[in-house]
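[recover] target loaded
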């Protein structure tokens, strides 16, 4: 199929324009573009995404144990032992899955950067429990992953996926936007619904700083993964109800870039501002340095 079309996308609007021009689905557009860029046949791309999905599942189920990360390594375990919750069992599973993956990332276990290690809990945290709960087959799950990956690619093209360059809005915000678009597609949302879900999710994260305490991807990163997961759910719920984004996704991404460019460097992964610069944050850094020097 890929040899028949001159397809390349930089923006989300490009995806929609190619859909209209060639009368193709978004999945077909994404696969054609990816095949040309990677020089892989489309079935090989599908195989890669099948592997990605399996690694996501594994990243939730790993048991993290690492004394070096004593501050937050037990966070997922504590949540799993809760006795009360405001949320349904599915949403509780999503929160736990996001926390578990993020803790495993902090402990240097295998995860999928979706789009980064620091934001790796959002997409598997939402997708894996939903796929299991609603019994989606692997075919539709892989297509949802492709949608999420394409949204991440658009963000990379128009802005950045790096907290050091754009703040945490570029990491957790992007992960939440990717996840929202993927889940909207899972529930048979059309391209407008997918865009609205993704756009709403990213809008809710604009301005989020990257201020990891002691330079570790723990505080506030692990909890933010859970927040990003729930934010994605909210965005999907709104979009599936018919609520549309006022600002197109591409413009929201450009706004994120503008905000990131204006954000002070102390708030972009340097550990010099925000939570990292609090008295408690400084104490944690000193304690960590002492433990490493023993």
């Amino acid at each position: 199929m890929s040899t028949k079309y001159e397809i390349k996308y930089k923006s989300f609007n490009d995806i929609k324009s190619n859909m209209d021009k060639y009368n193709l689905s978004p999945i077909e557009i994404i696969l054609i573009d990816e095949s040309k860029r990677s020089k892989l046949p489309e079935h090989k791309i599908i195989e890669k995404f099948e592997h990605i999905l399996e690694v996501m599942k594994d990243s939730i189920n790993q048991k993290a144990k690492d004394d070096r990360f004593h501050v937050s390594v037990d966070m997922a375990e504590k949540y799993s032992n809760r006795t009360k919750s405001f949320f349904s069992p599915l949403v509780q599973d999503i929160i736990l899955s996001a926390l578990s993956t993020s803790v495993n990332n902090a402990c240097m276990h295998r995860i999928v950067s979706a789009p980064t290690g620091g934001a790796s809990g959002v997409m598997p945290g939402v997708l894996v429990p939903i796929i299991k709960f609603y019994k989606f087959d692997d075919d539709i799950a892989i297509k949802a992953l492709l949608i999420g990956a394409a949204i991440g690619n658009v963000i990379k093209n128009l802005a950045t996926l790096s907290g050091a360059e754009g703040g945490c809005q570029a990491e957790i915000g992007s992960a939440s936007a990717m996840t929202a678009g993927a889940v909207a597609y899972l529930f048979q949302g059309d391209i407008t619904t997918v865009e609205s879900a993704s756009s709403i999710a990213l809008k809710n994260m604009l301005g989020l700083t990257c201020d990891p305490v002691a330079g570790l991807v723990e505080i506030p990163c692990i909890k933010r993964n859970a927040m990003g997961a729930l934010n994605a759910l909210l965005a999907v719920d709104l979009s599936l109800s018919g609520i549309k984004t006022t600002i197109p996704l591409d413009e929201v991404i450009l706004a994120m870039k503008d905000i990131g460019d204006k954000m002070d460097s102390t708030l972009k992964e340097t550990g010099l501002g925000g939570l990292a610069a609090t008295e408690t944050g400084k104490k944690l850094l000193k304690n960590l340095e002492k433990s490493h020097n023993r």
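[recover] notes: The longest helix spans residues 138-158.
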